[in-house]
Design brief:
heterodimer, A: alpha+beta, Cytochrome-c3 Hydrogenase, chain B, five-stranded antiparallel sheet, four-stranded mixed sheet, 16 strands, globular, B: alpha/beta
Chain lengths: 492, 160
């Protein structure tokens, strides 16, 4: 698979610009631009120094340890890995339908994760760009600036995060390193006092979520050209949907549409995913490039995550979020749905949906039940798919007769979006690079494009002193002609 | 009642020496220091500012990829110059967020940065890091049980 501007014909003759790593995304990423003699961008690539040892980390472990173990793959979305592995291991223990209470408790945990993750992204990572503009003063365009200019938004961001974490704590059993989702069900019931503690705050959570959606919608309405054009490109889409076509972030069948919006497949059972999705390796990237098998690697790449989910579902089964989905799709003849920045709007609609789902689950008496486990006949294979905050997450395990995992395959959301992120960078480079100067504005535009995907680069290591931002300019001869470094103690 | 002292260990237990923070908390749990709450997480996030309310003293324990061995113990103050933030938030930013959220100064805080060397997924704590951890635990246990800060930590303050 090769795209325009992905691989230049004679890269040895080009000037190289590297942005390393990208800030306000998780993990370590680097962008390289190769320029020709006329300073036009001939090649644009996002390099992600992802650790490729997940499968080896899991192989050889007893299957029942895996839902807890996989949380350590990612310090940002451990709950998504916890639940996805548990779903796969449900199949290994032969359970294809959880008890009603177990399913509700897992859903509650999952939507708590969606809420807190989306809140973090909007209130603390993307709001500085959105509220002040991409070209605004760097010293102001950060969460401190947001807190000064919009104190209510900063405060709500903290409390939304805390609420989501509290949902996770009461359902997972612990604030971190939760253990409640086990093969076949859950091992912790929800106490009435825990339920009531969440219910007293849920209406504020829904109110703030609605306000956040409205704020983002206003930003699009105020500057529709910028928001619709920035990093825009057409792409296919992949997500889970419920049997009736509704958005369902916990469980469903796979639906995919091509770049023209035509169906590729629908309601595909998760355990047959590998009949439909393949992965390609490219020599210049540590990350794989998934594609839809029937279309092949050149045409089969796609988006996942909030933007894809918004485009693919037939409706959202909660009233406030469904109203916002319709407004999103109708905006400017649907242009928001193809815009990279449309991810922000879609993400907040999902945050609102998550808040509504949490309310409904808390008010459902079956959530307080005590039938937590189901049983079935032991099997050797299990596939779990879940819509994690950043997109579709796939866990696939093979387990031998000694109960040990002998094969594991994980496709994480950011890997699904690998091609789409690269494409977004190419579009931004094409639009905003003047060919002469590695300006602060260009760097931030590229980072804004990447951040819209909320990529999690699966690097939970964060030890003090490991997050510099380095920008280097290298000429065709490989010589560094310019270099800028922001260390972690300096403002970004 | 909120314990007047909070110790937060940060790190991923399955990424080699990144486990120093949570391992330190494990060690402290065995010591059960008085009037001290112990927490651990993969990464600090902004909502941790709510956990700081009502504390007299806060200690952030983390692995350090550079700096002195076996550890560095230093005060940390709120900073309104946010770092190159990712989804994680450094201690100085959490303290600044506390000040913005409550409108009052955050509790006195220190960072205990324990020197680590290897951070690979699935790797155990390295021998050198384990030795540094032992030294850090000895230091902390003295400080939390009989050190000069112990008595000062007995009176809660700040927002509840």
């Amino acid at each position: 698979m090769s795209f325009e501007m992905e691989t230049a014909p004679h890269p040895e003759q080009l000037r190289r610009v590297a942005i390393e790593p990208v800030s306000r995304v998780e993990g370590h990423g680097k962008v390289t631009l190769l320029l020709d003699d006329h300073n036009r961008v001939q090649q644009a690539r996002l390099h992600i120094s992802e650790f490729r040892g997940f499968e080896r980390f899991i192989q050889g472990r007893p299957y029942w340890e895996v839902p807890v173990l996989v949380q350590r793959l990612c310090g940002i979305c451990p709950v998504s890995h916890h639940l996805c592995a548990a779903k796969a291991m449900d199949q290994v223990v032969g359970v294809h339908r959880l008890t009603p209470t177990a399913e509700r408790l897992r859903r509650l945990m999952h939507y708590g994760q969606i809420l807190q993750s989306h809140a973090l992204h909007f209130f603390h990572l993307s709001s500085p760009d959105l509220l002040f503009g991409f070209d605004s003063e760097v010293a102001r365009r950060n969460i401190v600036g947001v807190a000064a200019a919009h104190p209510d938004i900063a405060r709500q961001g903290v409390l939304l995060r805390k609420f989501g974490q509290e949902v996770i704590r009461v359902t997972a059993g612990k604030r971190v390193h939760g253990t409640s989702a086990v093969p076949g069900g859950v091992n912790k019931a929800l106490a009435v006092a825990e339920r009531d503690g969440l219910l007293k705050d849920i209406y504020d959570i829904i109110k703030w979520s609605r306000e956040a959606v409205a704020l983002t919608r206003r930003l699009f309405e105020q500057d529709p050209d910028t928001y619709a054009r920035f990093g825009r490109f057409d792409a296919g889409a992949l997500a889970l949907v419920r049997a009736d076509g509704a958005m369902d972030l916990y469980h469903g069948g796979l639906r995919a549409r091509d770049v023209a919006g035509e169906p590729i497949f629908d309601h595909v059972a998760p355990d047959t995913y590998d009949d439909y999705i393949h992965e390609q390796v490219k020599p210049w990237s540590y990350m794989k490039f998934p594609y839809i098998r029937s279309l092949g690697p050149d045409d089969g790449w796609y988006r996942v995550g909030p933007l894809a989910r918004m485009a693919l579902c037939d409706f959202i089964p909660t009233p406030f979020a469904e109203r916002e989905r319709k407004a999103f799709l109708a905006f400017d003849d649907g242009r928001a749905a193809g815009s990279t920045l449309g991810y922000h709007w879609a993400r907040l609609i999902e945050m609102l949906h998550a808040a509504e789902v949490i309310k409904d689950l808390l008010q459902d008496e079956q959530t307080l039940g005590t039938e937590l486990m189901a049983e079935g006949a032991r099997q050797g294979r299990g596939v779990g798919i879940i819509e994690a905050p950043r997109g579709t997450l796939i866990h696939h395990y093979e387990v031998n007769e000694e109960d040990l995992v002998v094969r594991a395959n994980l496709i994480v959301s950011t890997t699904h979006n690998n091609n789409a992120m690269n494409q977004s960078i190419r579009e931004v480079a094409r639009q905003y690079f003047d060919g002469r100067e590695l300006s602060e504005g260009l760097l931030n535009h590229i980072e804004v494009a990447i951040r819209a995907f909320d990529p999690c680069l699966s690097c939970a290591t964060h030890a003090l002193g490991r997050m510099p931002l380095e920008v280097t300019l290298v000429d065709a001869g490989g010589h560094t002609v310019d270099r800028a470094l922001r260390d972690p103690g300096e403002a970004c | 009642m909120t314990a007047p002292r909070l110790v937060i260990g940060i790190g991923n237990p399955s990424r080699g020496d990144d486990a120093l923070g949570p391992a330190c908390i494990d060690g402290l749990e065995a010591l059960a220091p008085p009037r001290t709450e112990l927490l651990t997480d993969f990464q600090l996030q902004v909502e941790y500012l709510l956990d700081l309310a009502g504390r007299r003293e806060v200690i952030f324990v983390d692995a350090a990829a550079g700096g002195p061995a076996p550890f560095r113990f230093a005060p940390v103050a709120a900073s309104d110059r946010p770092g190159c933030s990712t989804h994680a938030v450094p201690p100085a930013d959490v303290l600044a967020a506390y000040r913005r959220h409550y409108g009052t100064p955050p509790p006195a805080s220190h960072v205990l940065a324990i020197r680590g060397y290897h951070f690979d997924l699935g790797a155990p704590l390295s021998a050198a890091a384990a030795a540094n951890l032992e030294a850090a635990l000895a230091f902390l246990s003295q400080r939390l049980t009989a050190g000069p800060g112990a008595e000062a930590a007995l009176s809660p303050q700040g927002p509840r």
